[in-house]
Structure prediction request, 170 residues.
Amino acid sequence: MDEHVLDDLMKKFGQDVWNFAYSLTQNRTLSDDISQDVFLQAFKHIDSFRGESTVKTWLLRITRNVSINYRRSAFFRRVWLVNEIDPGRWGQSAEQDFMETEASNEVWRQVFRLRTKQREVIVLHAKYELSLQEIADVLQMPVGTVKSRLFGARKKLSKLLEERIAYEII
Prediction:
């Protein structure tokens, strides 16, 4: 792979790789390190890309594997998500914007309370809009397992959100 191709990959997929790493580690500094390692590995092992999946799916699979290795290391520390605010909504009242942002933030806070196996399928499905087959490719597992984890993740997320709402009402 020539350096221009690597640069193009980093420009096109760098943010997706970083965001996925962050969703798995919940640590900004670690996500920076993981992103660099992902593109170094892609550069070194471009010949292992067989074209059976998209480049994005291949890079997200590498991201997951590198993240798992980092999480296993002694340097891993857990940090909770501070969600990005969605700029770009116009024509709504400040109160509506605030309420929607708070609701979105709460959903993502609860997503990050899920176990990693549940969280990664939710993030790949909701954030990256990957198909079940693409998620299966990234996670290297059968589609049936992805469906099962996604069902369990949605059920757990729904329960967490219901508990949160009940807590706020009391």
Observations:
- The chain has two domains: 3-72, 94-169.
